[in-house]
Amino acid sequence: MGNSSHPTRFALISPYTGSNLGDAMILEGLIRHLQRRVPEAAIVGVTLDPRRFSGIHRWPSVNLTLTPRAFYYSPPVTPKNTERQTGRTPTPSEPAPSTSFGARVVKRLKRSSLLRATWNSLRSARGILRVACCEVKHLRQAIGTVRNSSALIVSGGGQFDEEFGGPWGHPYSLAKWGTLAHIFGRKFFIAGVGVCELDSTRSISLVRTALRRAASITVRDEGSLALARKISPTAPTRLMADLSFLMATGWQRSWPSQPARPLTIGVSPIAFAREGSWPTANPALFERYLAEFVEFVRACLEQRHRIRLFCTDEPDIRIANEVFRQIDDTAAGLSEEFKVIPMLPVDEHLEFMRELDIVVASRLHGVILAHLASTPTIAVSYSRKVRAHMESINQLTYCCSIEDFTHSRLIALITDMSPRLNDIAEHLRRACNARRSTATADVDNLLKLSLNTVIPANAEPA
User: What is the pTM of this model?
Assistant: First the structure.
């Protein structure tokens, strides 16, 4: 693990909690590239869960924020908040808690409209004071991190986003870290990010601040490029391959020209729009999505294909288990044909992708992880970014919309894809290698800008 004696230190900024395999792949690919190019450099993560970052990537990490916000904070686990989260209620053998005199007074005060307004104002003031205390505490930590860093890199992913945490979630964090880098004379780079949900004026203003602080800005798709230039027309924004392609290794796949065996199909559902798992809930859309996925898996099993349910983010595990539960009767006695695969580390997951003939996935990096293994993939797109990737890699034929896809459509695509597995796999291998070369050159350019020196090009993986 890194230590304070390193003369060069890169701070990698990401709303990473350790649960999302796409973010893990981006960060791991970037870390490995930085270590190849600048072996003496140290890494520090700036993440939502420093403990998990350090456990997975073996470098220290600091808090991206200390202010709790919905879907944008990983609080430390303590006995106190664990008990609160379980919602424990007294057992029948326990006496019911008595109501204190103070509680009874508060209850009476709330019945008065005037006093209720006063009470709500006090609660609001207390909330503001709590946020202010968190921000002051975090500012002290952040200043130390910035001063000890050579450069700060906003490291890929869909980081221009307000859906998870609102304007004062990640848009504010980007503006804050960018401003601190500017104040202390450190280079601030935005590398390979995507523009996701940015609707409010406040979020756009905060992202604009971050863009104006950046010495270099690269985004991962044409749609993100247009949106970023609309937010800040004068910012030096250009296209760059998704940083996950730094993990491309040029794997070659091959199948018999006329496969006589059943296919092994990887199926990766997403918790999109599920209430409690996604900030913007749409129960009707989610239930339709889940029902179609269940019917698709059932149809594949009836055709004797092998199914491997897998996830690339922890909220999806519950959905995979639900799919398995709903067709458990169908799967009875089919232990080899139907399995749920636990989440794996990045390298093991890439190896697992090579065992599959076809993947059906919804998350962007669930699709990209399969493509990195040269595995033909059908995307059930829930977002512009998924469709943009499939279009850019010339696989739009195998992309469906989450709003109107059907299980019969997926079966038809499987049938269409099966005779063409070798051609698709070779196309994916070449496309991923090309994107790796582009991403490599772009990161090397950031290193040149941050270190003011030419970075020698080490041997690339075959």
Answer: 0.85
